[in-house]
Amino acid sequence: MAVDTLRFATAGSVDDGKSTLVGRLLHDSKSILTDQLEAVERASLNRGQEGPDLALLTDGLRAEREQGITIDVAYRYFATPTRRFILADTPGHVQYTRNMVTGASTAELAVVLIDARNGVVEQTRRHAAVAALLRVPHVVLAVNKMDLVGYEEKDFRRIVEDFAGHAGELGLPDFTPIPVSALVGDNVVERSAHMDWYRGPSLLDFLESVPVGTEAADAPARFPVQYVIRHGELRYYAGQLASGSLRVGDRVTVHPSGANSEITGIDVLGAEAEVAYAPQSIAVRLADRLDISRGDMLTTGVGAPALTQEVRAAVCHLADRPLRVGDRVLVRHTTRTVKAIVKDLGGVSELGANDLGRIGLRTAEPLALDDYAVSRRTGAFLVIDPADGATLTAGMVEL
Predict the structure, then answer these.
(1) b/e sequence 279-302, b meaning 16+ C-beta within 10 Å
(2) What percent helix, strand, coil does the chain show, rounded to 5?
């Protein structure tokens, strides 16, 4: 049986215990090397602590260790017999919202951490808003430090009810609440013996069982061409299948030209295949010699993308330099990059770093766009500074 991979991100307000939660997850799932654990134990002893400070397993930058906060996105890789995991550990401070957007943009699940003593705070609402904006398919509400409120069910239920109200306002999909104590280890990897009122899974149990990869497989076929390979008289169109599936014999439409042809062959890892599924990297052969180049997109069947030069989107501004109406920029969508101008910013004069907002763009050439709610791959784009190639803004298409 093949072992699949779950990409997930963590987010929590300052001092909610996120680094300790991640450290506990890695430690109790036996995903820490012996020398790493020994180094943490020595560092903890030097600080006068009896046991290992599991937060030190994740706060890798010197500034993070000195300030006791998470600053940058850190990717951790671990595995259990059931599944492989790619964890994006994101910062909690408001000034690092753009880092959370970066970490959560490719995640299939987000763990939003709350301190049971403080309940839902402003940063919790912001993290929920980012998860909703990015359409993260699954959200876990981890109510941490349950040991400091006596493992009381009423405290847990009150926080869940409060969060549910905000989630409903944001249009956030259903979330899974789990009461945990990262410091003690309750309900992180092992089920807690202190909360017999809780019948649900531990955090790791849920991470191991949540469905993955369903969005890309179920979505309409989208194949952005990354490279054209010429082999004698044959042409192969290579790239990563962004969503859906392609089969030999499928009729395809090329965007933006609108030309049509039929798939006569599919290569996957250098071997002939009858069918390919997202997110495989493939090379496709067509029955006709068409003018196809990098940036074009092949699609099949119904549900064609919108071919447009007017782009409206929700955005998070990532750069320190502001974005203003009238700015001339580049828009990078899948493998296609086009010139554009900023037409409006949802009623504000400019967007600064970490701002969430709305944008209207006019592109020099048409883009084949999907609504971000339908496809996170073909409904997303980046706004680029044409002067130095710096990434300015991340956008989520709204059709």
Answers:
(1) eeebbbbbeeebebeebbbbbbee
(2) 25, 35, 40
Measured between alpha carbons, how far is 311 from 395 in angstroms, rounded to an integer?
10
User: Taking a C-beta distance cutoff of 8 angstroms, is the pair 114, 160 a contact?
Assistant: no
Which residue, chain included where needed, has tokens 């430690």?
27
Alpha-helical segments (H) within 122-178: 122-133, 153-170
pTM given for the model: 0.81
What tokens does 87 get?
């964890």
For the beta carbon of residue 207, count every other beta carbon within 10 angstroms.
24
At residue 22, the 3 state secondary structure works out as helix
DSSP state of 149: G
Mean pLDDT of each 10-residue bin along the chain, 399 residues long: 80 81 84 62 61 57 44 77 88 71 87 94 89 91 96 97 93 91 93 94 95 72 95 91 93 95 94 92 95 95 89 93 96 97 95 92 96 90 95 93
Distance CA(361)–CA(368), nearest Å, equals 14
Looking up tokens 């600080």 gives 47
* Cβ proximity of 362 and 352 under 8 Å: no
149, 117 in Cβ contact below 8 A? Answer: yes
In eight-state DSSP terms, residue 143 is: E
d(CA 394, CA 385): 12
73: Cβ contacts below 8 Å, ≥ 6 apart: 88, 89, 90, 91, 99, 100, 102, 103
